[in-house]
Structures are given as structure tokens and as C-alpha cells.
Amino acid sequence: MKHISVAGKALTLLFAVAFLAACSGNTKEDEAAAAEAAKQAQMEQEAAQEAARQAELQAQEEAAAAQRALEKAAMSAGTVFYFDFDSSTLKPTAQAALDAHIALLKTNDRSVRLEGHTDERGTRDYNMALGERRANAVRDYMVVNGIASYRIETVSYGEEQPEAYGSGESNWSKNRRVELK
Amino acid sequence: MLLTTLRITLCLLLMFAPLARAQLVIEITQGVDDPTPIAVVPFAWAGAEAPPEDLAQVVQEDFERSGQFAPVPRADMLGFPTTEAEIFYRDWRAIQSEYVLIGQVSAQGGQLAVRYELYDVLRQARIAEGDLSMPVGEARMLAHRVSDAVYEKLTGIPGAFATRLIYVSVTRNPAGKDYFRLTLADSDGARPIVLLESREPIMSPSWSPDGTQVAYVSFETGRPAIFRQVLATGEREQLTNYRGLNSSPAWSPDGNTLAMVLSKDGSPDIYLMDLATRRLTRVTRHYAIDTEPSWMPDGGSFLFTSDRGGRPQIYSYDLRSGLTERVTFEGVYNARARVAQDGRNVVLVHQRDGQFQIAIHDLVTDRLQVLTNTELDESPSIAPNGSMVLYATKFGDRGILSAVSVDGGIKFRLPARSGDVREPAWSPYVNY
To answer: CB atoms < 10 A from the CB of B428, how many?
Structure first.
């Protein structure tokens, strides 16, 4: 809005110069005054253009900052989402983290890969199916929240690629996960 | 009480030195209470050069591993007879051996021939004899065939020593991707041959019924896909590349069809692929998880795991009637069934008190008996003679293979010297 008002002032001045020129005949003083006024108007116009450019730059910077904030939020949200035993229900913390990724994905056209994993308990092929169920749960949440399904690939690794080797809940809880890549 | 602990560690021959690390070592942890003593006398060798293999030693180890026999140590033998005339029964009575096995080995034109004779010490009579031959390179397999014949004579059950295993072994790499290998070995873990190596997971090996091919799942393309591979030539072929799951291949008894699990149409379901035409037929249709198909020996139906009732249980699907029937009701978790050749005994993974154990379910009486008492037992595979179940478990922090007899009385471990071993698949009988 600022640059419009400046431009408005410059326009008013231009009209004023024209009016003066019309009223006072072709005297040298008049011409000098008119030249002075025109110069003044030009300067003011340039100032207005400069202000407009600054405003545009600022808007760009603000947009970039907003993008950086989205990226930062997505990064700090992490790319690994954890699940309870034999469950493919998204936890609230995982939903919050996914919201950050979804907000970022809406600003670009990237494709993502969701890799589903389980802990070592239960049979391997059943766990393959469970890992897929988890990856699908994440995919469905993203689709419901506006990410096109063709941008999402899901792959289950079952229990074949543990994050933590070894048994016990402390290791198992690290392995029941979906990784966003 | 069947708690006689034999605890015999047999370091198998290091024939293939570069592969020694992947070799399995057998440790018998439980045998029958009163194992039958048998003397396996070193076989005579009629050849100019050194014999390619100590066949009697291989036979002796087979009998030790069976858990039903107590082979006499060679150091205790008072003589090494190789013909009937050289057998002095009093010598064998003195060391309380009930049976004596002798043999003669000869080589001719690349073939190794063995003649074996089995004597009953009490009756002082020959009760079995036979002549077998195989290529020299298959000396160990020839010895296993002697074991099979003698075992059948003494127990009434055909032996399953002259069979092979396929398993997956993994070398952990905490800094990056693990290293996966698909390995073929003799039933005693000897002579391992790596069929496939990959930085991506290898899973679910399944034998063709004639024992010449294996189907498995490999992630080498970045996604799971089912492959089949010819053992003799190494020639391999990718069979599936569908979106979603491509898992659990299971060869039909006639060898023409591969059952598998795909989720391309939504949820995981069982499909049949005609291997000649590649035509795919969907056979289960349920929004729940349907997986882990295992054929009944007649090929008319198969068992599978489904959580359609809320928790994983075993169901059967009849291809003739199209009917699905629930099979297991005991406990909250029964999965990954494998059917014995008798079509009656089913080995599966059963959860009890939060622990996953190997159980046997009798399809006739509907009785379920838990066979193991460890915590994370999985992937049971039954021997072609129906006597032993090989499965994967954890020992310490490592994945190892173990075996248990179908009555739970005999147990032994086959830990690898390094890495994790998993998903054993016991071969069918193979004609060599």
C-alpha cells in the first residue's frame, strides 16, 4: 500500500506542474519552474519505484522465511514415526510430526517413500504385512490431508532392517516404525 | 525323563576353507533317555590315493545328531573289522555296542562306491547290507545315504540325512546396510554354497518339490520381488514386480503352481501363479492380512495365516470347494504353518505367555503341543521324513538354527560361527 500512496503523491505533483505551466504563459521563470517541478516529479517517481522494489524484496524474503520455517519444522519433526506392538494406529505425536511434513509437501512437488518396519516378534511374513499396514496408515493420513497418493510410494521391510539390534522393549520400540524418505 | 544332555560338539570338516565362517556347528542339547549304542567302524578303502572323505565319520555324526543313538567312540573299539570274518562279537559285547556297521569304499571312473553291512551283536547276525555309489565329489552325500538306509532298518522310519537345507544368513553392519546371503548346505550344515548375496533383504526360501529349484523374496530392486533360481546352474528369474507385498512363495506339490502373497489389490491376499503361463489367480479376498500359504501334500488345499478374527490364526482354503475354515483355536497367536508329508502334523509358531515357540498341531485330533521352550522361535521347517523340525531362534543375541523332534524329545542347535542364521527350509527327498 505504501508505494501506491507515494505514486499518488507524484501524480498530484505532476498535475500541479501542468496547471502552473498552463496558467502562467511562456515566461522564462515559468519554464524554469516547470523544469524544476518535472525534475522533482521524476525524483519522486524514482523514489516510488525504489520503494516498490524494496517492498517486493521484503515480500520475497518473508515467503522464503516462511518456507525455511516449514522446512525447519519438518526437519525438527523428524522422519521416523513410531508405533505400539502389533498396531498400525498413528500416535498423536506422529500426526503432529506428519502435519509439518504435509505443510512442506504442499509447497513443492516432491515424491516421498514410506518404509514400514516391525520389531522381531512374530513371524517374518506376517510382519511384512504389518509393516505395510503401518506404511499405509501414514500414507492414508497424508492423502486425507491433501497430498496426492501418486506422490507416495510405500514399501514394507517387515522385521528385516531393524534400527536397533537385540531384544527387549527398548530395542523393539525403536524398530516399530515408518521412515519417510 | 528325556533330559539326558549329550552336549557333543561336532566341528564339521572344513572342506571349503573360504566358506568356513558360514559353516554351522552342531550341538546336541537333548537326546532320548536310553540311546541305542552303535559302532560305526572306519570303512575299508581300496584306492591308491587318500580317500576323499572319512565316510564312517560322516555316518557316525549323523547317528549322534539323531539323538536316538549313542555311537561308540573309535578309541573304545577293540578292532576295526571291515569284513564279516573279522568281526569278533565278544569285542562288541564287551563295550556294550548293540550294532556294528562296517563298510568298504572304492573309487572307479569318478564314481565312489560303498558296500555296507550292519550286524546285530546280540543275535550275531547280519541284518542289513547294501551297495551305493555316487560321484566322488558327493562323498558326504553318499555317506548320508548309508545313514538313511541304516537308520530306516533300525527305526522303521526312512532317514533324512541325505537331504539339504537352504537358509538366510546375515552379517550385521551397524554403520550401514546388513549383508544378506542365501545359502545351500547339506542337512548337517556341511558344504555351504552361497546362492545369492545382497545388501538388501533376502527372505522366505521355498523348495521346488523336485528339489532342483528354490523360490525366494529379494529386495535387490529396492522393493520386494519373488524370484526363482535353478540350484545346479544358478540361472534365476524374477517372477513378480507388483506394487506392495510380493512375499511367501510356496511351491505346489506338483511343481506347476507357486502360491504367493500380493497386496496389489489392496490388502494382503493369497494368489496362485501358474508357472507355465504366468497367469495369476486371486484365491483369498479379505481386508485382513492373509499370508504364509503352505500346501497340503495332495495339492487340493493349503493352510495360511490370517488375522481376520482379530489375531493371527491358521486357516485352510480348499481349492475344490472354495471354502475357508479356521484350523487353530488354542492361544492368541498361531502363524506360519508347515504341513508334514503325512498331511496330518502341522508345525507352526505359537505364542504363549508373550513368548513365540514352535508347536505341532495334529489335524486329526486338533491337539496342539508346544515343542520348544525358548522365547523367539520362528520359521519351522519339517524334515521330509516328518521326524525333525528345524527352526530359527535366538541364542544370546544371535540368530541360530535349532532342531527338535516332533515328539519334543530330541533337540540340537546349529549355530553359525558368525552372523545371524534364519529361515531354514528343509529340502524334499531328492534323487541324485
So the answer is: 17
* Beta bridge pairs of residue B27: B9, B413
Q: Residue B270: which of B249, B239, B241 has the closest Cα?
A: B249
Query: Hey, are the CB atoms on B289 and A165 less than 8 Å from each other?
Result: no
Judged by CB atoms closer than 8 Å, whether chains meet at A156 and B224 is answered as yes
What CA–CA distance (Å, rounded) separates B176 from B168?
A: 19
Query: Which stretches of B190-268 are DSSP H helices?
Result: none
Give burial (CB, 10 Å; 0-12/13-18/19+) of B254.
exposed
| A129:B261 CB<8 A | yes
Interchain contact B160–A (C-beta under 8 A)? no
pLDDT, tens digit, for every residue of B52-99? 899 999 999 999 988 899 999 999 999 999 999 999 999 999 999 999
As given in the structure block, the three cell numbers for residue B249 are: 512363495
What order do you get walking across the sheet with B202-207 strand by strand?
Answer: B202-207, B213-218, B225-230, B236-238
Q: For B272-299, how does the pLDDT look when each residue is reduced to its tens digit (9 = 90+)?
A: 999 999 999 999 999 999 999 999 999 9
Going B62 to B64 to B67 to B73, the CA torsion angle's sign is positive
B335/A155 CB distance under 8 A: no
Instruction: State the Cα–Cα distance between residues B60 and B81, nearest whole angstrom.
Output: 16
Residue partners of B90: CB distance under 8 A and separation at least 6: none
- 3-state DSSP helix/strand/coil percent for chain A, to nearest 5? 65, 10, 25
Helix (H) or strand (E) holding B146: helix B139-155
User: What is the second-level CATH architecture of the domain B35-155?
Assistant: 3-Layer(aba) Sandwich (3.40)
Closest alpha carbon within chain A to B168: A160
Q: How far from the centroid of its chain's Cα atoms is residue B126's Cα?
A: 31
Task: Give the DSSP letter string of B52-104.
Answer: SS-HHHHHHHHHHHHSSEEEPPGGG-S----SGGG--HHHHHHTT-SEEEEEE
List, by residue range, all CATH 2.120.10.30 domains of chain B: 164-426
Q: Which residue of A has its CA nearest to B422?
A: A124
* Cell, residue B379: 520359521
Mutate to test the interface with B, among A160, A165, A175, A181 (most CBs of B within 10 A): A160
- For residue A126, give the nearest of B224, B335, B423 by CB distance: B335
The 3 state secondary structure assigned to A45-86 is: HHHHHHHHHHHHHHHHHHHHHHHHHHHHHHHHHCCEEECCCC
pTM here?
A: 0.86
Determine the average pLDDT of the residues in A143-172.
94
- Shortest distance between the Cα of B12 and any Cα of chain A, in A, equals 28
Q: Cβ contact (<8 Å) for B291 and A126? A: yes
Give residue-wise pLDDT tens across range B184-243. 999 999 999 999 999 999 999 999 999 999 999 999 999 999 999 999 999 999 999 999
Which residues in chain B are classed under CATH 3.40.50.10070?
35-155
Q: What is the CATH number of domain B164-426?
A: 2.120.10.30
* Gap from A112 CA to chain B (nearest CA, Å): 14
Quick: pLDDT tens for B150-171: 999 999 999 999 999 999 999 9
Closest CB to B394: pick one of A124, A130, A167.
A167
